[in-house]
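Q: Second attempt. The first request was missing the SMILES, so the protein and NAP are both included now.
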Amino acid sequence: MELKLCFMGLGSVGRELIKLIDRKRDDVQAQYDLSFKIVGIATGRHGILVDPDGIDHSYALNGDWADRAWASTEENRIKMIRECGANVLVEMSPINRETGRPALDYLELALNLGMHAISANKGPVVHGYRHLSALAKKQNKAFLFEATVMDGFPLLNLYRECLPATRVLSFRGVLNSTTNLILTLMEEGRTFDEAVQHAQEIGIAETDPGNDIDGWDAAVKVCVLSNVLMGADIRPQDVNRTGIRAITLEQIKQAQLARRKWRLVCTAEWVEGQLMAKVAPEEVPANDPLFRLYGTTSAIQLKTDTLNQLTLLETAPTPAQTAFGVLADLIAAARGHY
Ligand SMILES: NC(=O)c1ccc[n+]([C@@H]2O[C@H](COP(=O)([O-])OP(=O)(O)OC[C@H]3O[C@@H](n4cnc5c(N)ncnc54)[C@H](OP(=O)(O)O)[C@@H]3O)[C@@H](O)[C@H]2O)c1
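A: Got both inputs this time. The predicted holo structure:
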């Protein structure tokens, strides 16, 4: 079987996905009799490539498409989805936290055209999970998004495939790598500003680090997990959110003296029929699994009605791991596991 892929976005994740598809070509073929052909790639500013016969991977990665690219317009992105001949749309464009659009519209269009819809972008999941899932079900196609939380770590697929008839009662975790790295650097003696600057220099924090520091990224992930694992329907503004800006070096030192550590903790639980979702700094004691999270490591504990507590820990996330989450979804879609 061959999946024909249409990429919406070719940044860190998309580029790693191309490399991973190349690296895993023989394994995927041997294990699943499956191959991939990329027939469309859209970007924000660097043009759009379409070739129903397949786009050469080196050419795509080289990025100099001047002679063959369509202009990067909204109209052309929609034309690409309609005309490139793909049977899967892979959404890897930047998040729109407020509405999830236009990614949500692209995924909806793809499903309506009978394509599978796979997203690394959290926006459409936060704002369109119920709608897109129902549409995918109606079309008998996949809507999968493993890469959206904890990168490629098999959290959502584990829930779907390995926790049958299980209710997630609550969850608690550290889901933002940048803030955990900043807090770790402060534990090593750097000020907040020095820690942010270092995180930017090594490419972990963005030029405008507010999305991480103010807890927005964590809040978005809390929405994905609450809506998908716990049947809620919340948006980032519904999350009781406090970032790490106000934490001082003195507070970090005091916590260390008491064998405690500050962590930006994400929680969600049902209280009297209402989902209480929160992102806030917490001082965690040494016997808490979140105490040991160093640098960019993240973790989640699910409280369930079958396995009691389940803890997953992800160390040193990279865009290559995120790309693995997308590859896992592609294979699941091809195998009809959705
Ligand atoms: N990086 C990670 O490890 C990671 C982890 C989990 C989830 N994600 C999510 O995965 C998605 C991709 O992340 P990334 O790190 O690859 O981002 P990135 O490096 O910033 O790349 C984004 C890509 O999307 C393109 N783009 C911008 N606007 C677009 C539009 N309107 N339509 C189509 N393409 C557009 C950009 O093109 P131009 O460069 O031409 O503007 C670029 O190719 C994001 O939603 C991110 O939140 C990423």
